[in-house]
């Protein structure tokens, strides 16, 4: 995305164990960068850039960021600075709590009158959201902002492609284990994205402290994409027109988040390789629940796209610069 960005010149590209090798050995599709040699990830190598993107394993960003100048924009794709509450961090991560930064989800509605993008202009430290929290929070936030659902009866099941787990070797992620099979993980409140989603829904509901969530991730045999199916109990008297109005108020003017036309449902295929979010809902009158389905590409809107969009806002560029607004088909 940065290669296609009109305001960006790429500087140092750094790595861990791969330092010293060529970009083309790891990412052959990045042909213009094929012969660039990856450097060590040190404050010295990163110095002198206007913006630095970190995409390190959790817990490794804080020390590096602290060694970078305060006027340099640092965008962290890891979880290190996403959570405001130290107890939430220590419950799910095993490194010391490092604090929280401005949260890089511009379209998150904060009540009915503000968006998270208002908090990103001019920022120099930004935490990129997790991929599941992106799909789930953008799907549910308008309902919380407009007070249409009960806060304490939210159930989410979401499927992710395997690239969500990174490229490291993991026993359950061998091709032969994943292909032709779907499986749950982190069941029973065990996934570290649960507090991040709750934090976002609380922000949407302007600080409500009674939000609770049952979240179950599942691994799907596809390279990329997340499909989140979210349900919540609607408040008395809430009808489909009120729900549609809430989504239209939240996303009517957005470039990347789309409430689909009636009868059309999100799929991961329709957002692959784009920064788009596809959302649709149905009111299930028999159960008194609204069902919201949302789809994102975990590697675009779910990480790198959100990082570039956040940079654009922080540095005053066109918010959509360099970002693919539509995906590829078939
Ligand atoms: N994949 C996804 O869908 C999403 C990922 N994220 C976050 O983005 C970050 C990167 O994710 P992803 O690319 O999938 O993870 P990977 O595990 O695929 O890559 C992590 C990279 O970090 C490098 N690295 C590890 N330790 C160091 C170090 N000490 N110094 C410098 N580089 C190091 C490794 O480089 P080398 O190979 O050279 O050792 C490796 O390429 C993570 O924080 C992840 O949580 C966020 C949202 C979605
Ligand atoms: C399929 C898969 O394993 N997905 C990852 C989520 C990746 C991501 O967005 O999250 P972080 O940035 O918080 O790592 C997981 O469940 O841990």
From TrEMBL:
It catalyses: N-acetyl-L-glutamate 5-semialdehyde + phosphate + NADP(+) = N-acetyl-L-glutamyl 5-phosphate + NADPH + H(+). It is an enzyme of class 1 (oxidoreductase). Transmembrane segments: none annotated. Keywords: Amino-acid biosynthesis, Arginine biosynthesis, Cytoplasm, NADP, Oxidoreductase. Its main location: cytoplasm. It holds the Pfam family Semialdhyde_dh. Pathway: Amino-acid biosynthesis; L-arginine biosynthesis; N(2)-acetyl-L-ornithine from L-glutamate: step 3/4. InterPro entries: AGPR, AGPR_AS, AGPR_dimerisation_dom, AGPR_type-1, NAD(P)-bd_dom_sf, Semialdehyde_DH_NAD-bd. This is N-acetyl-gamma-glutamyl-phosphate reductase. It comes from Dermacoccus profundi.
